[in-house]
Amino acid sequence: MRKGEDLPTQRTTADEVHHLGQLLTHCGKRMTGQELLRRGGRYRLVDRTLLMKEMLRLVEVFVDDRVRQAETQIASLVERREGEAREEGRMRVLVSLADLGDLVDSIVQSLASESDSAATKALDKRLDRIFRSYGFERTLTVGMPFNPVFHEAIDEQSSEDADSGIVLEELGRGYHQEDFVLRVARVIVAT
Fold first, then answer.
1. What is the pTM of this model?
2. Phi and psi angles of residue 2, each rounded to the nearest 5 degrees, phi first
3. Of 7, 76, 97, 191, which alpha carbon lies 20 to 30 A from 147's?
4. Closest among 108, 103, 130 to 119, alpha carbons compared
5. What CATH architecture applies to the domain 136-191?
6. Which ranges of 111-143 does DSSP label H, i.e. alpha helix?
7. pLDDT tens, 1-45?
8. Selection from 187, 169, 183 nearest residue 97 by Cα
């Protein structure tokens, strides 16, 4: 390569940048064009200015590549965090709907009119369908053995009709998805 010629363009790696740095500084010592020619190497440079320009270009390519990698990783992280936030928001809404279901249950029990009771029972069924659409099932309670994973014992009562540890009454509905419990059912248990 003659003085004033451009260097061949190529993609760089950290090793190439390091190699160019060594050629440029020779570990802190100034190198003449003759020393560069004698040492050989892949560039055979005579002009230090060309060597500096090529090194800067290679560093720029190297940095641009690293910036693109970092941008990709950040975008992936942001997307994952947004997904987690959406999922957490869905869970909060479903827990609020479960509280609404408890309110519906108390209204059904307090109403004497058959037509009002039918409307609230329809609302109750609609709430259960919403939960099923998200993959949650209503936790079975009355007549089932008490399970601390799915039930919370609010009170205990003695009963001649049921064995000890059997759920007698549901005070608050619960929902679960396989082993994931969205909300535990609040119950009264037989002693």
1. 0.50
2. -95, 160
3. 97
4. 108
5. Roll (2.30)
6. 114-133
7. 444 444 444 444 666 666 666 665 555 555 555 565 555 554 444
8. 183
